[in-house]
């Protein structure tokens, strides 16, 4: 029988730092999973990876105001701290860092990170300033936690591409581990925002993943054209969505997030989309590799 250890809850940066200093002295490695809470199986898969790959798995729960353009979306972001604690402790998390805004932004938002690469496409294009907020909060969290490994979900594939660059740019001595997307049985990517879908929207939302599969099908059939694949996904969504409106569909090389001039995919690529419903914006993606002789898709 597995004996559940008590999970530590930290609210202040000094508390979590002092605890982790002691763990490092004992030679333990630190894994870190930043989240905005309202945990689901997608987050828990990251927690389990962190617990498997490092000696001491730490997660944070902080709904970061600077990455929201829409104040209402920020204020309405779902929360359930007690349930989050229960889930995190059952998924191998040893310490949960739950700071408030004054801990993370002691001097307000006067000092921040600006990211001007890979932000002119996908979510960066539709949510100006979003990745500056993400980069700023992660810089702060990486400095507080000083992890050996950080775990992020491919659900936010653009975030992974950008955070890898942030790690390189600021010489954070940390390894990025990209974890696969966890889906509902019908294929919808797990998201804290799914609870904000109406029953009819939830039913329709299965078509997001199906549209990505339709795009992949074209690649499997030998089509390598960025624009043709994008058109295929768009056409699928057009004929299957009546409640949601498409924010973007794009096909790009990954992690460069660029298209080639000849419109031909070569190497790793991503098909990504975002769809707006009444109270929830959903994102999803699939990635694959076209290498001539051997193609792989996820
Ligand atoms: P969030 O709480 O939305 O900021 O997400 C925290 C982390 O969990 C990010 O690295 C996300 O990519 C990851 N994540 C969220 N949903 C999923 C999912 N369905 N599968 C895998 N990872 C996820």
What would the keywords be for this entry?
alpha/beta, binds adenosine monophosphate, 4-stranded antiparallel beta sheet, 298 residues, 10 strands, 6-stranded parallel beta sheet, 11 helices
What does this structure look like?
The model has no long low-confidence stretch (mean pLDDT 96). This protein is an alpha/beta fold. The longest helix is centred in the middle third of the chain and has 16 residues, at 130-145. The chain has helices spanning 13-25, 41-53, 71-75, 81-90, 101-104, 122-126, 130-145, 157-169, 199-204, 206-220, 226-240; strands at residues 8-10, 30-35, 56-61, 95-97, 149-153, 175-179, 245-253, 267-276, 281-290, 295-297. Strand 8 and strand 9 form a beta hairpin. It is 39% helix and 20% strand. The chain starts with 7 loop residues before the first strand and ends with a strand. Residues 35-36, 42-43, 45-46, 152-153, 155-156, 179, 181-182, 189-192 line the site of adenosine monophosphate (AMP). Adenosine monophosphate binds next to helix 2 and strand 5.
Structural class: alpha/beta
The set of bound ligands, ions and cofactors reads: adenosine monophosphate
Proportion of strand residues: 15-25%
The 3D shape can be described as: globular
Helix content: 25-40%
Separation of termini? 35 Å
> What is the succession of H and E elements?
EHEHEHHEHHHEHEHHHEEEE
Sketch the major β-sheet: 6 strands, parallel
Strands side by side in the biggest sheet? 1-4-3-2-5-6
Q: What's the helix count?
A: 11
The averaged pLDDT comes out at: 96
Number of E-state strands: 10
Query: What low-confidence regions span 5 or more consecutive residues with pLDDT below 50?
Result: none
Alpha-carbon Rg, integer: 20 Å
């Amino acid at each position: 029988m597995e004996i559940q250890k008590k999970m530590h809850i930290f609210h202040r940066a000094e508390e979590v730092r002092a605890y982790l200093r002691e763990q490092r002295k004992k030679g333990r490695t630190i894994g870190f999973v930043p989240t905005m809470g309202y945990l689901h199986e997608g987050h828990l898969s990251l927690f389990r990876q962190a617990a498997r790959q490092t000696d001491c798995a730490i997660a944070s729960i902080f709904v970061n105001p600077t990455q929201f353009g829409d104040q209402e979306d920020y204020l309405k972001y779902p929360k359930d701290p007690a349930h989050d604690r229960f889930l995190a402790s059952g998924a191998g998390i040893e310490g949960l860092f739950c700071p408030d805004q004054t801990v993370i932004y002691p001097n307000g938002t006067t000092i921040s990170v600006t990211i001007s690469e890979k932000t002119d496409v996908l979510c960066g294009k539709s949510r100006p300033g979003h990745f500056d907020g993400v980069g700023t909060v992660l810089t702060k969290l990486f400095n507080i936690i000083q992890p050996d490994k950080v775990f992020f979900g491919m659900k936010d594939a653009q975030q992974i591409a950008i955070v890898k660059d942030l790690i390189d740019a600021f010489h954070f001595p940390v390894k990025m581990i990209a974890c696969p997307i966890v889906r509902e049985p019908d294929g919808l990517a797990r998201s804290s925002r799914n609870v904000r879908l109406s029953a009819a929207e939830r039913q329709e939302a299965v078509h997001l993943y199906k549209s990505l599969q339709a795009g992949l099908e074209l690649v499997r059939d030998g089509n390598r054209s960025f624009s043709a694949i994008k058109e295929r996904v768009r056409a699928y969504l057009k004929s299957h969505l009546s409640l949601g409106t498409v924010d973007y569909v794009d096909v790009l090389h990954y992690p460069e997030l660029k298209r080639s001039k000849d419109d031909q995919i070569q190497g790793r690529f991503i098909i990504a989309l975002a769809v707006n419903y009444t109270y929830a914006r959903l994102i999803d993606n699939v990635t694959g590799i076209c290498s001539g002789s051997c193609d792989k898709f996820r």
